């Protein structure tokens, strides 16, 4: 007889809060899914003692790597709190764990639920509480993993072993999970930025790795047929190297036709190695043009140095001394002299970092981008930007007002009013925007300056100007996830408590095209940032003019 009361005891700590849409890009929704799965696994472990079901056995074997990363079984409140924090850091922050979580939920669990005891299924239904990953979440997690692999040139076989950008984790990928990603990248459901509907090259690399680790003869035969089809289509549509903002090689195409490489096996891996030697990113960027070269952005994300700049600050570091009790000494890293690009270190305290995260937690929504295409207005969701954001006003929390006044000390710009009274519309600067990027979360190179009619006026019709400068705090440590400036050839590395500062407008008021910047994909960890966009009208007598004007 099934002891259902025992199962209820196993589930006592499982979180049953609701999740939001786009689960794969919301870190707290992912955290909740991981915690709920602990309860699901408890039910399945009980179910397999009743009926040795091969589907359940397969599920629990896959679950084991996640359990190895963050062990389960804490019955004290303080231990449970530590466990919840570890789930966010080690599971939500790991792109392989996130993808395999989606795989188990979306691909395996429905079949299991159709076969197990109805009373056990009721427990699972109560745990899920109507919130389960969709096909879009499954595709989003797969695409995020592929994005990390491509950007950081990680061998797929390393990902299968849980090695993410040089860091060993407990995560693992099976041959069928790799095969699933390969099929997804040529399904046409999620299109990469380059515009081609199918990512032949990435699909080939993942299928190649699946073939390497597969022990199933039937699966190997299917993979060989699939890879042969990929080769044919890749070579049929391959156009050769071309200049432009999105150049070959990319996610869709290798640097050469696959059939031009005769050595077997590992054709895809070999082609990527050829690509790395063939393309020097230094020579690819049009520094003064309106576009950028994606290879420059990705090289900066990997920490490579770009040497095409005429003037280079050589990353000068120094200490600045201020007559301020709140900020007597400031550690400054200069990444660019002209235009100015600074990183101010150790500006935020651990308490302030924690406050940012806690206060914005209930306000996070899927981020959008400004619609600037013909016939479109307002904001729109885009694969260019994968993150969640929320807004905080100075008058809501005193520490935010004090922080804005602190930034005024070393930027000589106005960010806030003389007192922290409630405001209905921004004047000196916009509200604080807190952003969080899960695994693979990114924001392709863009400008912070707003475009279109009316953007230089606030909601009360007052002229505020445009975003003259950006102040951006890093609120976490992580692997990857830097801020790259393709036209400057530099990238800022995330350090919790550091502030990156740059100007978006020239002294003339025109947009500075060198301020182009992008958020590199988060490889390992959860990336938190807090942006403050400073407005130009309030800076009329604040920003010093160069003597050449």
Please characterize this protein's 3D structure.
The protein is an alpha+beta fold and 549 residues long. Among the domains are: 1-143, no CATH class; 309-539, q2cbj1_9rhob like domain (Jelly Rolls), CATH 2.60.120. Helices cover 38% and strands 15% of the residues. It has helices at 4-10, 27-50, 54-69, 77-92, 95-113, 118-128, 135-151, 156-160, 175-185, 200-213, 217-237, 267-278, 294-301, 350-360, 398-411, and strands spanning 163-164, 167-168, 316-321, 329-336, 341-345, 365-366, 369-370, 379-380, 388-392, 432-437, 443-446, 467-474, 479-480, 483-485, 490-492, 499-503, 517-519, 522-524, 527-535. The strands form five sheets. A nine-stranded antiparallel β-sheet has the order 3-4-5-16-12-19-10-9-6, covered by helices on one side. Strands 11-17-14-15 form a four-stranded antiparallel β-sheet, covered by helices on one side. A two-stranded antiparallel sheet has the order 1-2. A hairpin with a 4-residue loop joins strand 14 and strand 15. Helix 2 (27-50) packs across helix 3, helix 5 packs antiparallel against helix 7 (135-151) and helix 9 packs antiparallel against helix 10. The chain is globular. Mean pLDDT is 85; it is low at 1-21 and 371-382.
């Amino acid at each position: 007889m099934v002891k259902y009361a025992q199962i209820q005891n196993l589930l006592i700590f499982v979180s049953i809060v609701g999740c939001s849409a786009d689960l794969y890009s919301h870190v707290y929704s992912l955290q909740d899914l991981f915690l709920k799965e602990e309860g699901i696994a408890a039910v399945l472990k009980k179910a397999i003692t009743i009926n040795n079901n091969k589907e359940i056995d397969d599920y629990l074997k896959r679950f084991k790597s996640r359990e190895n990363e963050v062990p389960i079984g804490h019955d004290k409140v303080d231990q449970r709190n530590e466990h919840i924090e570890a789930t966010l850091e080690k599971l939500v922050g790991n792109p392989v764990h996130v993808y395999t979580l989606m795989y188990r939920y979306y691909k395996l669990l429905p079949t299991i639920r159709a076969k197990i005891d109805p009373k056990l299924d009721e427990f699972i239904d109560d745990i899920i509480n109507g919130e389960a990953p969709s096909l879009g979440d499954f595709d989003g997690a797969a695409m995020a993993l592929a994005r990390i692999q491509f950007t950081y040139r990680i061998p797929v076989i390393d990902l299968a072993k849980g090695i993410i950008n040089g860091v060993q984790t407990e995560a693992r990928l099976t041959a069928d999970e790799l095969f699933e990603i390969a099929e997804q990248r040529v399904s046409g459901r999620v299109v990469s930025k380059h515009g081609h509907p199918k990512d032949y090259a990435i699909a080939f690399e993942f299928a190649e790795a699946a073939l390497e680790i597969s022990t199933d003869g039937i699966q190997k035969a299917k993979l060989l047929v699939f890879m042969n089809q990929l080769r044919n289509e890749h070579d049929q549509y391959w156009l050769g190297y071309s200049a432009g903002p999105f150049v070959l090689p990319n996610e869709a195409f290798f640097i050469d036709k696959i059939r031009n490489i005769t050595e077997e096996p590992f054709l895809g891996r070999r082609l990527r190695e050829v690509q790395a030697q063939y393309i020097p990113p230094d020579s690819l960027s049009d520094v003064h043009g309106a576009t950028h070269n994606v290879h420059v952005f990705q090289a900066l994300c990997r920490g490579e140095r770009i040497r095409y700049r005429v003037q280079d600050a050589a990353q000068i570091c120094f200490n600045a001394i201020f007559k301020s009790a709140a900020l007597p000494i400031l550690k400054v890293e200069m990444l660019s002299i002209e235009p100015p690009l600074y990183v101010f270190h150790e500006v935020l305290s651990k308490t302030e970092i924690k406050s940012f995260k806690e206060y914005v937690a209930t306000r996070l929504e899927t981020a959008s981008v400004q619609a600037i295409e013909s016939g479109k207005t307002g904001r729109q969701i885009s694969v260019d930007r994968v993150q969640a954001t929320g807004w905080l006003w100075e008058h809501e929390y005193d520490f935010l007002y004090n922080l804005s006044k602190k930034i005024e000390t070393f930027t000589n710009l106005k960010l806030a009013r003389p007192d922290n009274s409630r405001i209905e519309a921004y004047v000196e600067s916009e509200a604080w925007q807190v952003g969080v990027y899960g695994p693979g979360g990114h924001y392709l190179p863009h400008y912070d300056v707003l475009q279109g009619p009316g953007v230089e006026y606030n909601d009360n019709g007052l002229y505020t100007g445009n975003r003259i400068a950006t102040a951006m705090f890093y609120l976490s440590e992580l692997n990857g996830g830097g801020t790259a400036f393709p036209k400057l050839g530099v990238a800022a590395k995330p350090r919790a408590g550091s502030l990156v500062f740059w100007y978006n407008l020239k002294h003339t008021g025109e947009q500075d095209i060198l301020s182009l910047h992008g958020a590199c994909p988060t490889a390992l960890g959860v990336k938190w940032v807090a942006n403050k966009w400073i407005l130009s009208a309030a800076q009329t007598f604040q920003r010093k003019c160069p003597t050449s004007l």
